[in-house]
Amino acid sequence: MADFNKILNPGDYENGEINVVVEIPTGSNHKIEWDRKNACFMLDRIEPIAFAKPCNYGFIPQTLDEDGDELDVLLITDQPLTTGIYTKARILGVMKFIDSDEVDDKIIAVVEDDRNNGNAYQTLDDLPKQLIEQIRFHFSHYKDLKKPGTTEVKEFADAEEAKKVITEAIKRWNEQ
Questions:
Q1: Domain total in the chain
Q2: How far from 75 is each of 85, 140, 152, 174, CA to CA, in Å?
């Protein structure tokens, strides 16, 4: 397997396009994480099925969020994607998120060329309100059985705010 942080860059994020590596498919309760040290995917744990991911979950290569991991991406597609693939994605916004008192923001994006839905999603406002509420609910409660009250969805913000978060994450990566 290739080291995504060596072969991919973050993408043309200033113009709204990012590279996203998929870790967890939509509907999975497997907590699969990119192990940067060993350059491979690792099954960290199995969550209760009630907390399966409401969308694909991945990361932007060559970024670091304030929690020390690559910057997370919630990638919206009609069907689950496979762990270990990457795609070019269009930035829709960001979910500002706190996990165990650490900033752990999630960029929200869609596949750059989604001909199935006619590239209908251009902003967060284009996403179904029910999907946003499912994402909010999931991240507000997915640790409730083990560590209740340790997560907080602060807000959903637009693509311009997401670009600022990405810029800071690239800066942290370059300073490491």
A1: 1
A2: 12, 18, 20, 24
